[in-house]
Design goal:
A hairpin with a 2-residue loop joins β1 and β2. The strands form 3 sheets. Strands 3, 4, 5, 6, 7, 14 and 15 form a 7-stranded mixed β-sheet that branches. Strands 10-9-8-11-12-13 form a 6-stranded parallel β-sheet, with helices on both faces. It has a two-stranded antiparallel ribbon with strand order 1-2. The C terminus is likely disordered. It is 24% helix and 25% strand. The chain is an alpha/beta fold. It starts with a strand and ends in an 8-residue tail after the last strand.
């Protein structure tokens, strides 16, 4: 059969090619794609040519083997249905809605061990957010907000909004967000932030400092998440952190450098902690009780509660992929989906 696949061919350039797809082999199934989500962080870096070419795409996913040099197949958030079974695959897989960490393509074959069944009552528009929800879950596990803490989230893209939503369900007493785009600040409040501020507005920052009681001995933020994708935002995080505050870096900056990071002022005296967070692994202190499957199961449950499909701003047919990636430059583009094998509105 024929399939259509997306390839990053050069900076700011993607192509959709037609190619042959073999039937599923033993132990495999054929997936017909319905939706895939474009990562506004990682895929924007790849599209712009700002991803380190010598870095492996993902060391934990067989579907993303190889590096990040052009030409490149990428994507890790795909939902579809099982349409054909290979030898030795049980019939209960047929027509099942499934999620896969797989590059953008209209169809593919894979072993069932690489698939995650979607609950029948979960719309696939929400199921496609599974990687982002797992990432947000990982941020909370890495940051470990305590009861009564003041928490700041810098950046209210899709992962920032999900993180804000989960913090609202945590023990944190106050959740503040920083986001320069007014529309995203509105979404942030809807997601559960107590207040959302413009980091480029001095009066907004003064108001936030007042709420943090920044000048008092116990003032400042206890926990800060940097999710904006801008390494210069780290300095703002350090400025707003209280004594022994933690700054969790969830952004992936690619080849961008935090060249002007201010570690010469209050960083040492305040005993601040900068911590990287990466969803491919589990926080070491949790590995005795948590594994990937447990965290995925939790993220799946949270999708049904939060319903992140309300934050989809753009939908493009796969053949419009070039336009879709160019749309990433629009600050109002919170989440972009690619559509395949359309059968009407995705359900």
């Amino acid at each position: 059969m024929k399939r259509s696949s997306l390839i990053f061919t050069a900076p700011n350039q993607v192509e959709v090619i037609e190619e042959e797809l073999s039937p599923p082999a033993q132990g495999e199934v054929l997936i017909e794609a319905r939706l895939s989500a474009i990562s506004p962080g990682t895929e924007r870096l790849i599209f712009k040519g700002n991803a380190p070419a010598d870095l492996s795409a993902d060391e934990t996913l067989t579907s993303l083997s190889g590096g990040l040099s052009f030409p490149l197949r990428y994507g890790y958030s795909m939902v579809g249905r099982v349409r054909a079974l290979g030898p030795d695959v049980t019939k209960d897989w047929l027509d099942q809605p499934v999620f896969a960490f797989h590059p953008h393509t209209s169809a593919f074959t894979t072993e069932t061990s690489n698939l995650i069944r979607l609950p029948a009552n979960l719309p696939i528009d929400d199921g496609v957010f599974l990687p982002n929800m797992e990432t947000a879950t990982n941020f909370l596990q890495d940051g470990a907000p305590l009861i009564g803490e003041r928490v700041i989230v810098i950046g209210q893209g899709i992962v920032g909004l999900l993180t804000t939503s989960l913090l609202r369900r945590s023990a944190a007493s106050r959740v503040f967000t920083l986001e320069p785009v007014e529309m995203r600040r509105t979404l942030s409040m809807e997601a559960g932030a107590d207040s959302s501020f413009d980091p480029d507005n001095d009066s907004d920052l003064k108001e936030l400092e007042h709420l943090l009681e920044i000048e008092t001995e116990s003032g400042g933020a206890d926990l800060i998440y940097e999710l904006s994708g801008n390494p210069q935002a780290l300095n703002l995080g350090l400025r707003l952190a209280g004594f022994s505050g933690r700054v969790v870096i969830g952004s992936w900056y690619g080849t961008k450098q935090a060249a002007d990071l201010d570690l010469g002022a209050a960083f040492h005296r305040q005993r601040l902690t900068l911590k990287s967070s990466q969803v491919s692994t589990i926080e070491p202190s949790l590995r005795g009780r948590w594994n990937k499957a447990r965290r995925i199961a939790l993220a799946m449950d949270l999708l049904g509660e939060i319903k992140p499909s309300r934050w989809v701003t753009h939908r493009f047919d796969l053949q419009q992929a070039q336009q879709a990636y160019q749309q990433l430059e629009d600050p109002k583009a919170v989440q972009i989906l690619l559509l395949y094998n359309s059968e009407g509105p995705a359900q």
